Amino acid sequence: MYYQSTRNPKQVVSASQAILQGLAPDGGLYVPQSFPQFDLNWDQLKDYSYQEMAEFILSPFLDDYSPEALRACIDAAYDDKFDDPKIAPLAKVGDRYHLELFHGATIAFKDMALSILPHLMTQAAAINHNDKEIIILTATSGDTGKAAMAGFADVPSTKIAVFYPEGGVSDIQEKQMLTQKGANTYVYAVKGNFDDAQTQVKALFNDPDLRQKLADQGAQFSSANSMNIGRLLPQVVYYFYAYAQLVKAGAITAGEKIDFTVPTGNFGNILAAYYGQRCGLPVNHLLCASNDNKVLYDFFQTGTYNRKRDFKLTISPSMDILVSSNFERMLYHALGDNSDHLTALMAQLDQDGLYQVTAEEFQAFQGISGEFASEDETKDEIKQVFEANDYLMDPHTAVASRSYRKYLDQVEGAKAGVIVSTASPYKFPATVLQAIGQDADQASISERLAKLRELSGVPYPQAIEELEAADIRDKIILSIDQMEAEVLKIVKD
Ligand SMILES: *Cc1c(COP(=O)(O)O)cnc(C)c1O
């Protein structure tokens, strides 16, 4: 199995090399040259543990890892850092199913991939006899940062620097990052929004002078953002696992097609569902759910991707994104793996802020569409579902839940529907309490958490208990153009 850059078919590398590099040197993203076709015997798969399913799905994708090495990565990642032995349990909520991806160390779905990525990366360095120190640069809209710091903390031969938008993440998210332990972890608030931070991280990555300065000091960059294929592939696993759980519960028969609705930001999570479908997972429809930053919804309506609009800060901050990095991969596949055309469209997006696909190309997006939920709809959804089902959702999950509701109003013949549930409500206590009519304005973080526990009856996840006790480091605020100097300081540190 080989991976090639979306922007140059001649840039071809192995799985381990793709994971080490993060981004291709031409600025493109690595994509698999073909999709393995799995022999899906659901009668057997339904009894697989999460770890067994991970081995089954990841083996053909990571074929330059030995079976023992891969199994070691899986076992190190999916252990008791997760507070549910199923790792990604399915909850029945009314007549839908919620695939709960928030049982890891930071109570959001980034843990699913970021608990295994550091192991895949150090293993990749061993496979390639690479003895450089790996410097991870990560822009975060809130959740990736903490999950990446937790994943890489104290992993030998690695350092990680995280940049988040100042004022653009929740109190809890910021506190989670500022309390992270690990001498190899660095975190900065950046004056700008997420797109500003992400654009600068990409620019640092692709700066040949900076790369050389790092190489001179025995270091190299890699990325823990979902541009890294090592983030994406582990996410394919849970779509198969969810399907197997539905078969096991008797909710569907083997082979029956189902819908997935994914609350979307950088388009990594939903792309993993699409990759699952390309590998034979029986999917009826993929619904890409957006908040008020609904660039993707507009694309799926019109075939025009237009980032020229106001950036809105919403109550689902991890989805506040106008340039969804992984959409480049989706577009590449939809264009029939045409690098030249893809590169031209990406250049247009850079220069003009928009691009448009032809009517014929737009046809290739059948089977996937967009919906969105406004701020009021999102809060109303949290309330409705809590009142009807006694189940509390975080705002990101609520965007997906409302979007699927809106989608079903427009189509005939509903299928079994899985809502991909990306964060614990404990991560956004103020918003959730307000949505269900509790006045929490004056309350401290601790008081809000206690109130949520009382209302939901769900015990505190370990991450919340630790947060209450941990020491907070000093907050460092940078302007965008101070980021490069700071990175060089870290390399010397
Ligand atoms: C990151 C994140 C998303 C968006 O996922 P993408 O893979 O970037 O599309 C949605 N919800 C939560 C809680 C997240 O942390």
From TrEMBL:
Named cofactor requirement(s): pyridoxal 5'-phosphate
Ranges for domain Threonine synthase N-terminal: 3-78
InterPro entries xrefs: Thr_synth_N, Thr_synth_N_sf, Thr_synthase-like, TrpB-like_PALP, TrpB-like_PALP_sf
Pfam families per UniProt: PALP, Thr_synth_N
Positions bearing N6-(pyridoxal phosphate)lysine: K110
Enzyme class: lyase
Biological process according to GO: threonine biosynthetic process
Keywords: Pyridoxal phosphate
Coiled coil (residue ranges): none
Stated family: Belongs to the threonine synthase family.
Protein name: Threonine synthase
Species: Aerococcus sanguinicola
Upper taxonomic lineage: Bacteria, Bacillati, Bacillota, Bacilli, Lactobacillales
